[in-house]
Write a structure and sequence with these properties.
Elements (H helix, E strand, L loop, with lengths): L1 H12 L3 H18 L2 H11 L17 H12 L4
């Protein structure tokens, strides 16, 4: 997933993939610093990071890890 995002950023911004990688890494680091730790771990899992704090990458949610992230964010915002 991370590689797809880097390629999309590179294409849309008309920049090289190494520069797009820096941009994506910067945004992810900022997000993980602002979100609760469990959500940061879900971002790692979703992005396929080897530094993931999650114990499993298998998802029971039909939307995969994206659905798990959305569910967690909804819970943080008071929705069940």
């Amino acid at each position: 997933m991370a590689n797809e995002i880097v390629k999309a950023v590179a294409s849309k911004a008309n920049i090289s993939e190494p520069i797009a990688q820096i941009a994506v890494d910067t945004v992810l680091k900022l997000l993980k610093g602002k979100l609760p730790a469990n959500v940061g771990g879900l971002l790692d899992t979703f992005m396929g990071s080897s530094s993931s704090k999650a114990t499993s990458t298998k998802s029971d949610n039909p939307l995969g890890n994206l659905g798990n992230i959305a569910g967690t964010l909804g819970g943080l915002l008071g929705k069940k």
